[in-house]
Write a structure and sequence with these properties.
about 260 residues; Tetracycline Repressor, domain 2; 10 helices; about 65% helix
Length: about 260
């Protein structure tokens, strides 16, 4: 993610988040060794509870912030509003995030993490190729359908920050681009498996699929058109019908294996 010079004082804002197929290895906690003769259980025991309580408090604030941002947008977030919702002091909320901008970026990251857990990670358990591509769309579709009432931070954030350079926009762009890259990769894998035509343009197909999700959100949430979800599903099937390979077409890998064996 590109961060404009001098635009952010928090190094963590520049972290690039990627969808991956394996569990995050950073979840492992490394403990420092000690040469003290005292029992290990007594070392550093006192700070554990305050640390856990601090994390729980931050998670509570972030959960409230995500709920507010879903309904009011990222610009609707403020330290004062969160203090009122969480019944904390403004200084208490400020101590966990430091600034309104850092709060907004943290909300974007949390939304991205939840999106990945609900959409991307379960879909990666399905077989490669067209089944996985369908699973990605289906889970994405279900989440957007839920967000008709709750609001989508990816979409509302794009409206709020499309022409406003800075760390918050950079964070949003990184998360959305990460998701688009994952979809494009799924399309390319479906091509490799012979499920989509060899002449498929992955970026064009991605554009069409992403566009129909935006149309669903617009028609269902803004226009309140009944049946928008059914039209979105029908549109996805129309896109697939254009790019899907003939049933008799073998996968590229199978053809390559046959050629080598011959």
């Amino acid at each position: 993610m590109r961060v404009l010079p001098g635009s952010c004082h928090h190094p963590q804002n520049s972290t690039t988040v990627r969808f991956i197929e394996t569990p995050n290895p950073l979840s492992t906690v490394t403990h420092a060794s000690s040469t003290s003769s005292e029992p290990a259980a007594d070392l550093g025991a006192a700070p554990v509870r305050p640390l856990m309580k601090g994390r729980q408090t931050r998670a509570t604030i972030l959960d409230a912030a995500l709920s507010l941002a879903s309904h009011m947008g990222l610009e609707g977030l403020s330290i004062g509003a969160l203090a009122e919702v969480t019944q904390m002091s403004k200084s208490g909320v400020f101590a966990h995030f430091g600034s309104r901008e850092e709060l907004q970026i943290s909300v974007v990251r949390e939304y991205h993490a939840q999106f990945s857990a609900e959409v991307f990670e379960p879909a990666m358990k399905t077989p490669r190729g067209l089944p996985r591509l369908r699973a990605l769309f289906d889970r994405w579709f279900k989440r957007v359908s839920y967000e008709i009432d709750a609001g989508c931070i990816y979409i509302s954030g794009a409206v709020e920050f499309d022409d406003r350079p800075g760390p918050v926009r950079d964070a949003l762009v990184t998360m959305v681009q990460t998701w688009q890259n994952a979809l494009e990769r799924a399309i390319r894998i479906a091509m490799d498996e012979g499920h989509l035509r060899a002449d498929t343009d992955p970026k064009q197909m991605l554009f069409e699929v992403h566009g129909l999700i935006l149309a669903l959100h617009h028609d269902a949430r803004f226009l309140r058109h009944a049946g928008a979800d059914a039209r979105a599903r029908a549109a996805f099937e129309n896109v697939l019908s254009h790019y899907i390979a003939p049933v008799a077409a073998p996968a590229r890998r199978a053809r390559a294996t046959t050629t080598r064996s011959a």
